[in-house]
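DNA-directed RNA polymerase: structure tokens wanted.
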Amino acid sequence: MVVRQLTTDDTWQILSTYFNSKGLLSQQLDSFNSFVGTTLQEIVDENKEIRIKTSNEHLATEIFNLTFNQIYAKIPPSIVETDGQVRSVTPSEVRLRDLTYMCPLYIDISVKKGRISAQRNTPLFSSTIDDDGVLYDQHSYSKVPIGSIPIMVRSSHCATAKLDSGSVATYGECPYDYGGYFIVNGSEKVLISQERMSTNHVHVYSKNDVYFAEIRSAQEKGSKMSKPFYVKKIGKILVCNLPYIKGDIPVVILFRALGFISDKDILSHILYDDKHLEGENVVIDDYTTDVHSILGACIEDSFAIQDKEMARDYIGKRGAPAGSPRAKRIQFATSILEKEFLPHIGTTDFLESRKAYFLGYMINRLLLVSLGKREIDDRDHYGKKRLDMCGSLLSGLFRTLFRKLVNETQKHMQKCIENGRDFNIALGLKTSILTNGFRYALATGNWGEQSKTMQSKAGVAQVLNRFNYISTLSHLRRVNTPIGRDGKLAKPRQLHNTHWGMVCPAETPEGQACGLVKNLSLLCYISVGSNSAKISEYLDEWGVVNLEMLENSKYSKKYTKVFVNGVWQGVCDNAKAIVEGLNILKRTGEIIQEVSIVWDIRENEIRILTDAGRPCRPLFVVENDEVRVDNTLSFDDLVAEGRIEYLDVEEEETSMICMSLEELHNKKNNNNNNSSSSSNNISSNDISSNHISSNNNILNSNNGSSNDISSNNISSNHISNLNSNNNNILNSNNIS
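Answer:
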């Protein structure tokens, strides 16, 4: 293999291989494939068991246990004809016959019946439990139908998935149709990506001279419902909120409820390397004086609560039912602290130390901002945003519908047991719940349960625009910000610096939706998400000290905090080696290449992100002031070899990016390609749009921008070739 230095002509050839292999809709297809391939099973595992117990004081107690196991999606999609025949179909046939392009779901189910003796109140029936119980009946059912899910055209489960562009024509499909949409009742529907704030990240804002640090905490696995938590500074007092607890709770009481009683223990979780706490006579500055004044006022305000039991009782009084005894109140508060307080850190016991450190971290950030040592966080920073693609939207809907299916099955089981009838699997599983639920959401665009229309999001599913080819591509790459169109705030609508390379700067509608409806840039890719367990294992091997093993007295500012998906994993004193090691793993394919590795030297933090919905773009990797490629010039091969890698917005801010190959000779570090990835596929065809600032002067199917292509680099060195030449093509709703 001949390895040589990259040239400007090579970048265009590499871009051609990128569009040929990945296409413009890879983010939609990859998101859906991930939903069907992994997310379906994860959601089933969250709600996999139904257990019903019948009690009788004279007879043995019977226990019925139903478990959902492996779930299957049948390939290819099929329909049931009027004569009962099941037949596979193609997208073309579904369109012509006004049908819905869906595939049936099947699931393996095991049912066990057990008995607890009235004399021996001992469990039950499973071979995994002690033999005190008696197992008297057990059945397994294979591939039981539970409903159908819609299939995205050209996805891995589509009938045309493995066909090349030449073969799809024989199935009645256009060779230039990338897919990325659904077919419901013969109508083509597209799911519009929804923009939202990221979860598990601390943001500090101010409102009406009140500063607060907030986080939307959500578990990496399990329910994606985020639990908001904030710490607020009112005067000199710091208070916080807890889910299901009325009113604000002083932070000192919350620390004591977590088991940190002494003032020194509490302050050591908030202030790092504070020699004043150690009793040393040191000169302190105005900031330290103000911090001690604020925290001293907080401690004095909570002086009456001096132990863990009292603190939990204080919290329980504000949430438990009126008249509950003290033990019940403490139990209620304990449950809230374990399951509802910062659930992204964990929902089991023995995590009080981790949660206390994270609470102290939030307070530290809040004090730095409120006392002028750090700027307020920017709500519109694109690194703090996530895009819910079709996979995330479908998984949220499936989670809701599957829970409803489980609840209905449990009710049917209960009735059968009470009436002495045998439980019939075919009657108990209502397949219409999933099938009709998905069909309703896609047909109407109201994303949610049909019975809860007021809680649904409107306009998520839209009829695909087929006015012309470019308008179709534009519609499939659209992003919506779900806030009121009548809002007076200008900032959410304005172009932000961090949109560079991720969002088209010109393609947005006029009128009320201006700036709220955007389009992805040509080379922008949305992360699908991956499990962080493997990265955590590497960090443990490389000497990252776990928070539970860290003594407060030894904590030091010289340590670098390590976060994985917003969870404070631990601290290290070899940040450079860890970042370099992670980058090597990323470039060699040991960990997924969409992982973000951010070394924020100013904050002394390493933030590793593997979650879904992060906008990122590909960049050339520069080593020894050169970009080396082989003669194949294949995008996929270059990614596999670590010569091109993906960077998201936050990682870009900690990387050095050159704007052209020519600049690389004068600058050091990474590489960017040609500068048209900052514009959308539609806008890249506009006439001299890089010289026209008004959307009124741009004739396009929706809007426009310039024809630049940016290929950027990751890690520490990047380059970008700017190409100001534009293809002069007119596209509008009246011109084609």
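The first strand starts at residue 3 and ends at 5. The chain has 18 helices and 31 strands.

Cheers.
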